[in-house]
C-alpha cells in the first residue's frame, strides 16, 4: 500500500499544466483515475483496520501494524487535498481555454462582418438600395448574433 501511495504521489507531482484543451481533458481523466484509486485504497485501509482490530491484544506486531496503518491513513489524507486542488486548477484552466477559444471565434466573426458594416455605399437608385437591403437581411439571418448564449455584456 505504501509503495502504491508513493507512485501515486509521484504521478501527482508530474502532472504539469497542459497547453491545450485536449491535454486538460487527458489530465482530468488521469486525475479521476487517481481519485478512484485513492477511494479504493481507503476502503482497503478500512478493511485492514478492521482485520487489525480483530487481532488479539497480545499478538506480536499489533502495535507495528497499527502504526503503519496510521502512517498510511495520514498519507492518504494528505494526498486527497492536492488531488482536489489539482482538479480545481485543471477545471479553471479548461474554462479559461474555452473562453479564449470563444473569444477567438467572436473576433473572427466581427472581422468577417466588419467590411459590410463599414460599407459606405448607400445605393444610388431604388434597385441598388433594394439589393443592399436584401443582402443585409440575408447576411443578418445567416450570421445571427454569436453572443446570444452569453447574456448581457458586463459593466466595466
Automatic annotation (TrEMBL):
Gene3D superfamilies noted in UniProt: 1.20.58.60
This protein's UniProt keywords: Actin-binding, Coiled coil
Gene Ontology MF terms: actin binding
Pfam families to which the protein is assigned, alphabetical: Spectrin
InterPro entries xrefs: Spectrin_repeat
SUPFAM superfamilies with a match to the protein in the record: Spectrin repeat
Coiled coil: 24-51
PANTHER family for the chain: SPECTRIN/FILAMIN RELATED CYTOSKELETAL PROTEIN
Name of protein: Uncharacterized protein
